[in-house]
Amino acid sequence: MNIKILGNGGGVNDGLPYNSFVVDETLLCETPPDIMLSINKNQIDLSSIQTIYISHLHGDHLFGLPFLILSAFFSNDETGTEFSFEIIGPDGLEKMCENLVVSAFTSKHPCIKWMKEFCTFLEISEVSKPTLVDGFETSIFKLDHLIDTYGFSLAREDRSIDFAYVADTRWCESLHRLLAQKPQVVLIDLNGVDNDPEPVHPSMSDLKEKAIPITGEITTYYGTHLKKEFKSTISCVKCAKPGTEINV
User: Fold this and answer.
1) What span, in angstroms and rounded, lies between the C-alpha atoms of 80 and 213?
2) Which CATH number do you get for residue 49?
3) Does an H or E element contain 145, and which?
4) Among 93, 107, 200, 224, which is least packed by CB within 10 angstroms?
């Protein structure tokens, strides 16, 4: 499995491209406002994307979708490339996406009709079992954020977890249960800092004090959704940077 980081920034950051990544060139995770810039800068072929995963309906994870839809619509019209996307996310996803595309281009734009014909929507819960990447079993877990937010893990049959994505969250029981399975690689929200007036995101201290004691050196953590990039002094913690490729 290959994970390529497209962006690593949180909703408020010091100029980083917003958090997004691609798995095996077919699964795009998150469509932040600058997603088309990140896709093109990292030389991702949009036509290879089959599935789009949205962890929750905040703008830094979703507001680039209209421009991705527009790009696919025009590429289909101009080059004959056949696009279709399964878009996966929490309850309310389909209505939110339709409203965003209409807000961006008005209801008269033909890309609206194209989206309704060539995009399917799957709204998930903790018991959902979507196929995100061929050959891997997906598990969905709910996180503790301001709105419904879901992470996922990918595992080969009869094996431990190869990869997990922990989107925006406080430290919570579902995160503890995930780490108890000792996944090989975890891409995790590290937007929190020690002096946050109210913890809303995990911090480096959370990794040191709560996560690493569970997983030891078995799990490698890549921090994303950042305020600013960091240099890690912990061997199993790395800063996910645009262009980083993680092979599991």
Assistant:
1) 52
2) 3.60.15.10
3) none
4) 107
